[in-house]
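Protocol step 4 of 5: obtain the predicted structure for the target chain.
Materials: sequence only (see below). No template structures provided, no constraints applied. The aim of this step is simply to have a reference model before the mutagenesis design in step 5. Sequence pasted as it appears in the construct record:
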Amino acid sequence: MNNQWQKKAKQAQKETDAALSNQIAQLSSIKQQEINQLLAENSMNTADFNQLIKLIKDQTKSNNDKIKALSNMQNGLEILVGLVGKLI
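Step 4 output (structure tokens):
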């Protein structure tokens, strides 16, 4: 039974990742395939990406605090640089 839950969790994660990349694609000029590729290249899933977005949007932290937190987040800076590079 535990294996069934793991399979369902993995499927839910894939669906959530697809929904997130679709939303980003709709809000920007980045194609969904490019977003999926960028997330995969940086080994980042939706949960990690959401944490990254929350950190960036946190108005109680200074930019220096955000930079320190980003440097501790695995692949956080890489994914941001990749996204910004595609937006410009």
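Step 4 remarks: The helical segments are 2-27, 32-41, 46-57, 63-72, 76-87. Residues 2-27 form the longest helix (26 residues).
Proceed to step 5.
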